[in-house]
């Protein structure tokens, strides 16, 4: 873990030796000057879900409409997160003057690592660390005055902390957006993907693609890269295939996840796991909270649940602090229209090709659709949590008929759908209650369904 050198605190702001007992006016000036040149960061901001989401905005591979949409809402804020976190501006923001500060800068990272070896530092760590160090300074006889003045300045600034991350499945739909989000924050990103359904072209040039299988190659890669965090998105995601070949599904989703967990354990990395709400809860009569009975219908849901249980066991056994996220039906640019929840992609692809989509059953079945940028924001935010299970959905039920109406509207096309027999075993209602994630991850979905559909259509139309 590495704190960027421009993150200042009363001690780091000066390269002065510890034995200085007072700070004169010249020194105060030097401290302020240093502060003005540097961008100051707070760890809680670096992990803020909304900022993580906004990090996507500056990235050209996510549709430009995202930026158009969000910028007016951000204008006039205390700090403009788009500007703060935009990928292209890292150098400009001075990462960083003051190489001479480096040895002192390393210190907090080391102390934080001791506090929470398996996880990422959180705001309370930083506060405790600051208090501890301030206490030490006072014991050393330092003057409180300049420290307090500096602290005031400090809180108006933001902190960015770089992490070294492995994204399994980072060449896939959601994983590639997670990669983009990490790169936009300035993180070091390695992708482990066997390209079985993912595409090389999805991986942004700033990330390093390691072509390999989570069942064999996770250990070697983690030993080489020594990531601090792993976003584990590689999976067999085809529900129908899981019925036909449950052994294959379990091999990738259970054994593969175990390999990732062992690899992460070997280097103390935290794991954020992409689970599924839709396939784990089964039939929902109201928005499912995390303690809703789990009744997966297909082996895919069973294997995801088994992986979650291993993660919970590793948390109990090793205090690992891993997080499982139960995604709703994710949609957005780069989605393969044949995936677990590809209905948005399927509808749009058909309309784009001038064909009518097919609706199975009467179309009253409901799902919880969530835009991929919102999922990325939750996923990045989860890296700062101590461990648990969280729903990542909109909390809104949308029927397939309603969805198709909306898709036609954003596409500006009217074409009656074809209807086919309901598929056996299909869940009628599925919707997730995201309030726990809102409370604990400080995350909430920012895109309405219509906004997300418009961005997805813009991407499909541009293909
Ligand atoms: N798309 C959704 O709506 C949705 C909903 C709930 C959960 N999820 C979960 O989110 C994650 C990502 O889903 P997605 O929609 O982006 O799917 P995706 O198929 O686009 O991405 C999965 C990636 O994993 C890779 N992969 C598969 N098996 C692998 C293996 N053995 N070793 C290495 N790489 C392997 C694939 O090549 C692909 O790039 C999955 O874990 C999925 O179960 C997705």
Q: Oligomer, anyone?
A: single chain
What is the class of the largest domain in the CATH system? Alpha Beta
Radius of gyration: 24 Å
Distance between the termini: 39 Å
Helix count equals 19
Strand segment count: 15
CATH topology of the largest domain: Rossmann fold
In CATH terms, the superfamily of the largest domain is NAD(P)-binding Rossmann-like Domain
Largest sheet: 7 strands, parallel
Ligands in the model, by name, code or SMILES, are:
nicotinamide-adenine-dinucleotide
In total, the number of domains comes to 2
Fraction of residues in helix: 40-55%
Determine the structural class based on helices, strands and strand pairing: alpha/beta
Poorly predicted regions: 1-159
Strand content: 5-15%
CATH architecture of the largest domain: 3-Layer(aba) Sandwich
Mean pLDDT: 74
Main-sheet strand order equals 5-4-3-6-7-8-13
Silhouette: globular
């Amino acid at each position: 873990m590495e704190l960027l050198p421009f993150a200042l605190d009363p001690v780091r702001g000066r390269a002065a030796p510890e034995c200085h007992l007072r700070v004169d006016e010249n020194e105060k000036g030097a401290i302020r000057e240093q502060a003005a040149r540097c961008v100051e960061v707070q760890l809680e901001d670096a992990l803020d879900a909304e900022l993580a989401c906004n990090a996507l905005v500056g990235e050209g591979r996510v549709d430009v409409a995202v930026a158009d949409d969000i910028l007016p809402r951000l204008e006039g804020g205390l700090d403009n997160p788009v500007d703060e976190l935009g990928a292209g501006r890292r150098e400009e923001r001075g990462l960083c003057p003051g190489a001479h500060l480096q040895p002192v800068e390393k210190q907090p990272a080391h102390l934080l690592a001791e506090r929470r070896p398996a996880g990422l530092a959180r705001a309370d760590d930083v506060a405790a660390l600051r208090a501890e160090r301030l206490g030490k300074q006072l014991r050393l006889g330092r003057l409180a005055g300049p420290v307090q003045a500096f602290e005031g300045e400090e809180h108006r600034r933001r902190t960015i902390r770089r992490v070294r991350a492995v994204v399994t499945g980072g060449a896939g739909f959601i994983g590639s957006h997670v990669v983009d989000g990490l790169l936009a924050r300035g993180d070091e990103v390695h992708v482990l993907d066997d390209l079985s359904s993912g595409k090389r072209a999805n991986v942004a040039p700033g990330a390093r693609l390691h072509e390999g299988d989570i069942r064999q190659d996770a250990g070697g890669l983690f030993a080489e890269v020594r990531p601090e965090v792993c976003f584990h998105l590689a999976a067999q995601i085809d529900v129908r295939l899981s019925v036909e070949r449950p052994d294959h599904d379990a091999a990738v989703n259970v054994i593969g996840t175990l390999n990732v967990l062992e690899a992460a354990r070997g280097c103390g990395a935290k794991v954020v796991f992409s689970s599924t709400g839709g396939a784990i809860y089964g039939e929902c009569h109201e928005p499912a909270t995390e303690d809703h009975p789990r009744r997966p219908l297909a082996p895919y849901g069973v294997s995801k649940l088994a992986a979650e249980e291993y993660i919970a066991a590793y948390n109990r056994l090793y205090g690992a602090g891993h997080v499982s996220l139960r995604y709703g039906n994710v949609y957005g640019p780069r989605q393969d229209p044949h995936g677990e929840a590809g209905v948005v992609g399927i509808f749009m692809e058909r309309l784009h090709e001038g064909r009518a989509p097919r609706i199975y059953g009467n179309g009253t079945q409901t799902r919880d659709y969530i835009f991929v940028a919102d999922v990325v924001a939750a996923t990045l935010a989860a890296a700062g949590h101590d461990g648990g299970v969280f729903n990542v959905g909109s909390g809104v039920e949308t029927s397939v008929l309603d969805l198709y109406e909306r898709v036609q509207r954003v596409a500006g096309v009217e074409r009656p759908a074809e209807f086919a027999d309901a598929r056996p075993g299909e869940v009628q209602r599925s919707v997730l209650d995201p309030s726990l994630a809102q409370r604990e991850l400080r995350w909430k979905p920012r895109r309405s369904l219509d906004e997300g559909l418009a961005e997805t259509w813009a991407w499909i139309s541009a293909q």
